[in-house]
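Attaching the record inline, Q. Sequence:
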Amino acid sequence: MQLFVNDLTVIDFSYLCPKRGIVGESWIVDVLLDGALNDQSMVLDFGIVKKQIKAIIDDAVDHKLLLPSQAKGLHVTTSESRQGHEFVDFYSERANYFLQSPKQAFAQIDCVEISIEDVTKHLIEVIKKQLPSNVTGLELTLRPEIIESEYYHYTHGLKKHDGNCQRIAHGHRSKIQLFRNDERCSALEAMWCQRWQDIYIASIEDEVSIEQVELSEQAKAELDDNYRFFAYQAPQGQFDIAVSTNVLEVVDVDSTVELLADFIGRQLKQQSPQDNFKVIAYEGVAKGAIAYV
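Structure, as predicted:
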């Protein structure tokens, strides 16, 4: 007997890519279970599937930075000054990134380069350990949203968030809809999606000096004027990152989707003061904010 749940959840995360650097991503998750009926005449209660399996997936990869553990450009070390924290140094063709975060903000995936197949394999191994004995098979489908229009990949962190959004390097794959004087403008959408393609979005409020940022000794030896530094203390711990300026957008607000929508609108209004704009900014799949400027 088989039991399925489509659109079980959406995982929003970022991953390290040898070519693209840090990439924000959003994948929809479908699940299919094989097994014998239990004493309730079910393979597994839908409530358990929706809550327990979703929770396992969220804990494993959601709002984390996924690390390809076999990548040559990756170096992970334990912080000696902060218990439960790690340094991550990553070298890619596009840019280099240096981070310090609580260990729970990272997920190591056994691969050279992050792919849907490798993340699926990782999740199946994690979930199977926690399934009841009557469930003998598990199939996961991870898939990006089908987007007919323009979209971008961004990574950020929200220090004021009580949940996992506080992690300094998690992200989303998001579409955007922009209207100038009530008419949708695909040219503006394309411009913003190119501007924010594989971007790291940081708040100016979180910027610190090179002397203040906490990074590995290896990272400190690499730092120069091509980097800017951001750090904050959040409920889960201390978060620090150094980002190359060529993959960075620094905004004058927190990077919530509400304020990012307003930021885009203000930028458009500054360029065309005589026009009115409507910004529909998405944060991953099927959620977002609308700003009118």
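The helical segments are 46-61, 116-128, 186-195, 217-222, 257-271. The chain has one domain: 2-173+206-245.

More tomorrow.
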